[in-house]
Design goal:
The chain is α/β, with parallel strands linked by helices and about 475 residues long. About 50% of the residues lie in helices and about 10% in strands. A 4-stranded mixed beta sheet has the order 7-8-10-9, covered by helices on one side.
Amino acid sequence: MATYITIVGDEQRKTAARPKFQSIMDCLRKELQQCKEPLVPFERFVNEPLNNALDQQLDYINFQYNTYNFSVMRYPFLIGTAMKSGLLRMDCKVRQRLERGHIFHVGNIMYIAPYLKIQVRRDNIIQDTLTRLEIAAGDDPHSLQKQLFVEFEGEQGVDEGGVQKEFFQILIERLFNADFGMFVWDEETRLFWFNSVSFENEAHFSLIGMLLGLALYNNVILDIQFPMVVYRKLMGLEGIFDDLEESHPTVFSSLKQMLEYSGDDFVDVFDCTFCIGYEDVFGSALSYDLVPEGRTVQVTKDNRQEYVDRYTDFLLNTMISVQFEAFKKGFQTVTQRSNLTEWFHPDELELLVCGRKDLDFDAMEGSAEYDGYTKESPTIVNFWKTVHAFTEEQKRLLLQFCTGSDRVPLGGLKQLRFGIVRNGTDSNRLPTAHTCFNTLLLPQYKDAESLRERLLKAISHAKGFGMV
């Protein structure tokens, strides 16, 4: 750090030294990205005092516009994931405003919508979305970086954030549905994988990639269960043997046993060739030669490493190349001008897309705000007692009801800015919510049992938007 301070303090030395330092960083970053589990965890490099003192807005200006001023964003290994997420959101908002500014500048000549507005029908949401995004990407790919507004045809909801959350949720549920056939659900891993023999065309896989990018740009968390290798591949890496442990654990165990076997009867024990067999989702038997005429090439102790490498490459890369490349292309169509690959590791990208998995409702309670109530109000006391006694599934339903998503933001529930507003006196009315503002409208029920009964009914039967 002392050397770097000297460099930025001396204009002449700074200009001369930067290319060399940057090339070193490029080399280091390449190795860091390729390493699935580094010997020194990434977190050890994060400078917490620097993160706490960082002026995000000033640092962003220096990063984007003042080339020779110091910016921590040029050295992302020093920044924590939550801080980088905040800087990414700032970058997205700036780009969205620039798009609007450009549009207003040419507005005297022709009208161009300052937002990416999508109107869809619930019963045809996939085709409506695909058509609208294909038109937008074809006319101007940068339009996908505009702020998104969603409207469900025939419904009254005004999109202040909540409508688009439901939009993403419905799309993801339908596109990942087993009946749609694009992805395969593994009961062992509880994860999805690409269906290499899907009947759906590449445009639908591209659509899912665009949805991931749009969700990032609009700060929406998605309920997507992918193994980490998918995010590694989105960052430009190839799937490797260690990735199989999460994505294909049974295959990983068998191949690992093969690599570690030391007996002289290897051929007799394993008795396999460079032709592998597998089944498609319909149970039909298929085969693939890992090398030319692979069914005639015996796997031995001498060539087993090549066999494992080729088998891994087939499962994680070759077998799904058509589907994944379309998916990646859609993702990059939206994110191509962002700094995702420079700032984030694959596991951090997963957090950005899916959020955290822990449900810390104590933190949510500690940061909650009230209107018409105080934290000592009997209704509020009964509410939190009820919520803390919920099962995890019921807590996720409540989170979905109040925020439009059952996923936890990167900074945890304490950063959710959750609010409870008094909505009249005791009655048979159910609680309602403004998902755009993470706000629960809660009547002042007479006792804890009434509150619990009506709250459970509300969160279990919530769907669609209407006037509240």
